[in-house]
Amino acid sequence: GLDRRINKSSKKANPKFNNKRLRKSEIDDLVRGIGLQPVQVKSSKSNKVSNQSNDKQQAPQVKTTESLPAMSNLESPSISLQQQLDYSRNGHTVLRSFIPQQTIEQLKSEIVPYANSQTLAAWKQKVEVQLADSADEYYRQNSQSIANGLADIEACQDMLESLGMANGDLPFLQFFNTWRAKDSNAPTVRQLCLSPYLAQAASILMDSPTVKLYQDSLFHKRAGDGWTPWHSDSRMAPFDTSKMITFWIPLQKVPTPENGGTGLLFVNYSHSDFALPYWNGAEGKEYERLEQRYGSGSIAHHMPMSVGDVTVHNGWTLHSADGAEFVEEGEDRYAFSVTFVDGNAEVRADALLENNQQTKGDMEDVWSYRPWVTQVEPRTSFRHALVPIVWPVERND
Question: 146-149: long-range contacts at Cβ-Cβ below 8 A with a sequence spacing of 24 or more?
Fold first, then answer.
């Protein structure tokens, strides 16, 4: 069911958009009706926001894609009106052949070896998240120090097992913000994350004149890993905004679900379901009966995916992924994601408290934003080197 697994036969795109091709004039009217402009967004010096500078920590400065020939030729992303409409209405869309295969291959050759060198940190992150969600107050209050004190992967696995999470229950290992790591030896990661190509695409789809880079992540779903539960990314972020967007970039082909594909599954329209969090909070029982709420027919996916295809989803869109229990050893799935946020998004005052706990939301992203979130003033427009403005180009940090 929606609250655990999805019937394979229900994993198909919304037929409304597959069986009827809208005329351009119809699409234009629909786009205008939801507040978007049916034109290609261009670089503009207008609509600037007044941000105060708070760059207390230096980040790698990469301005161009000159050393990425495959990217430097892509001056402006091609985002169709249909894709804008799909994203606005459904909360997700797919961009076929959006990134050159050469760039994906180079990205994978750089980031996978770096991630392998950071595996212990990824396991510690999983431990901290589980400790922070524990019923034991001591664990919750000391989750960071306990996780950091674990000496090796085996100790992390033992701790997770004691908390009720066996190795096979783990959905993936996650590696945050390779673009910031000066020792990563991954220039393609930095250049892709900071590229005007991705940033302008985010601006178009979010309808945001100014865009900041929030984070990048590598998701390593190993053979035998479990399913990724239904979740929305914005519950894990420190911002109070409806404008957050993630580009999910598989680093290899993704087959259909029937053939073992573990690409993302989306719940159509869930990003606009304001009633779910409003009436049920962050942990209400409605999250355990999503199938009854939405119906199995609301599930959509964009598999199969070729190298270079990218899915894009709103920060509030519910999504998940099947487990890799039946994937053969050595056929691990790697996916790279880049998340952007509206340039005016403000940080919540309760994003990170003294004991590293949130009063609301989930703890998955704390490792990502802990280095900078206490250095900015909550509820203000802010500037920080670790959350740089990437669009428009003339405003970038």
Answer: 148/124
What is each CA distance from 259 to 9, 304, 326, 333, in whole angstroms?
13, 9, 10, 14
Distances (CA, A) of 261 to 247, 248, 290, 338: 18, 14, 22, 21
Q: Who contacts 33 (Cβ-Cβ below 8 Å, separation ≥6)?
A: none
Q: Return the bridge partners of 93, or none.
A: 312
pLDDT-above-90 percentage for the chain:
65
Is-cis flag, bond preceding 77, omega within 30?
A: no
- Read off the tokens for 231: 């979740």
Largest CA distance in the chain: 62
What separation, in Å, do the N-terminal and C-terminal C-alpha atoms of the chain show?
45
Picking from 330, 335, 119, the residue whose alpha carbon sits closest to that of residue 219 is 335
8 Å CB contact between 200 and 207: no
Whether residue 44 contacts residue 374, with contact meaning beta carbons closer than 8 Å, is answered with no
Of 198, 263, 270, the C-alpha closest to 232 is 270
What are the extents of the domains in the chain? 8-38+47-119+170-344
Residues in the chain: 397
Would you say 349 and 378 are in contact if contact means Cβ atoms under 8 Å apart? yes
Structure tokens at 72: 């430097």
Contacts of residue 130, Cβ cutoff 8 Å, sequence gap at least 6 = 159, 160, 163, 165
Q: Indicate the CATH number for domain 8-38+47-119+170-344.
A: 2.60.120.620
Contact 191, 67 (CB under 8 A): yes
Q: What pLDDT was estimated at residue 52? A: 43
- Mean pLDDT (10-residue bins), the chain, 397 residues: 42 36 50 51 36 46 49 80 98 98 96 95 96 91 96 97 89 96 90 96 98 98 92 95 99 95 96 92 81 89 98 98 79 95 96 61 87 96 97 83
Q: How far apart are CA 348 and CA 113, in angstroms?
A: 35
What are the backbone dihedrals phi and psi of residue 339, each rounded to the nearest 5 degrees, phi first? -115, 130
Return the pLDDT at 352.
Answer: 82
Measured distance CA(277)–CA(271) in Å, rounded: 11
